[in-house]
Amino acid sequence: MIFPDREIKIALKKKLITIDPAPNSSAYASTSVDLTLDPLLRIFRNTGPGVIIDPGLPGYQVKQLLNGVTDPFTIPVGGWDFPRGTLVLGWTKERVELNLKAKLAARVEGKSSLARLGLGIHITAPTIHAGFVGTIQLEMFNHGPNLIKLRPDMPICQLIFEMTKGVPEKAYKGQFSGQKAS
Questions:
Q1: Catalytic residues
Q2: Per-residue pLDDT tens digits for 25-83
Q3: Residue 116 CB: number of other CB atoms within 10 A?
Q4: Region 105-126: what's the mean pLDDT?
Q5: Which among 95, 110, 173, 175 is least buried, having the fewest CB atoms inside 10 angstroms?
Q6: pLDDT tens for residues 141-154?
Q7: Residue 175 within any structural domain of the chain
Q8: Is the pLDDT score of 9 beyond 80?
């Protein structure tokens, strides 16, 4: 079951969901709430054709690998022109917490107004697990034919909350638990 705007607001008041900073009234759609873009991005270096990433190796650590092949970049106040055909990592400005006892999970999805320009905000990772705490990392790709201006604090994605059938045995404690822009 997907939560409509009214149920999202009730869940926020009851602290079943925490979004900090709190969304303003214009952030709500009928079944979602918009989140905004943190100014920090991680931009992939052009490592050339000889670099191979092997996530099947024992001890593979995605955070460590990403820090080795990307550079931090802060979007200036005036914005940044996102090149076409480029992948960058970003984060939501908002810290999200899904109380484990709330029986909720969420999906992060793109905004249709940005998707129509070619902006994708996740590749295959839309799930925000029950018990998640942190900012949401975005795998942003410009699929369009033009540069897309990204600005700090712009609405970048939407969260859709879904009821789980029961309470999970354990909260999400994966490698992205507690993540923040870095």
A1: 139
A2: 999 999 999 999 999 999 998 777 777 888 888 988 888 888 888 999 999 999 999 99
A3: 10
A4: 95
A5: 175
A6: 999 999 999 999 99
A7: no
A8: yes
- Rounded Cα distance between 17 and 63, Å, is 26
Mean pLDDT, the chain, rounded, equals 91
Within-domain flag for 116: yes
What string of DSSP letters covers 134-170? Answer: EEEEEEEEE-SSS-EEE-TT-EEEEEEEEE-SS--SS
Residue among 95, 93, 115 at smallest CA distance from 37: 93
Looking up residue 134, the CATH number of its domain turns out to be 2.70.40.10
Q: Is residue 16 part of a domain?
A: yes
In a domain, 122, yes or no: yes
Tokens of 127: 């799930």
Residue-level length of the chain: 182
DSSP code for 22 = P
Q: How far apart are CA 76 and CA 21, in angstroms?
A: 21
List, as one string, the DSSP characters of 72-105.
EEEPPTT-EEE-TT-EEEEEEEEEEEE-GGG-EE
Domain count, the chain: 1
pLDDT score at 181: 65
Contact in structure between 178 and 132 (CB atoms under 8 Å): no
